[in-house]
């Protein structure tokens, strides 16, 4: 009798596993589905960040002098040896140099 009970219980469990096919026994609520989606997105973002960090470990960021020095834009009043130019021309030249510098970076 004991073997028969064990057999029937195992048969019921086997039937339950074959019918569920990995699906939950009840429907998930919208918040549960959204939470699972957010967890999946978070895991993929962390994987990408870790991959990027491993790729960037060997990359040099340039000279340390450039990183410690703060760049600031010069105003036309700070340039004293350009007396033959108008402030608009000086501003145009500064804008041109800034655009060239941003293209090189």
TrEMBL record:
Superkingdom, natural source: Eukaryota
Any GO BP: intracellular calcium ion homeostasis
GO molecular function term, any single one: hormone activity
Keyword Coiled coil among record annotations: no
Family: Belongs to the parathyroid hormone family.
Record function comment: Parathyroid hormone elevates calcium level by dissolving the salts in bone and preventing their renal excretion. Acts by binding to its receptor, PTH1R, activating G protein-coupled receptor signaling. Stimulates [1-14C]-2-deoxy-D-glucose (2DG) transport and glycogen synthesis in osteoblastic cells.
Protein name: Parathyroid hormone
Organism: Collichthys lucidus
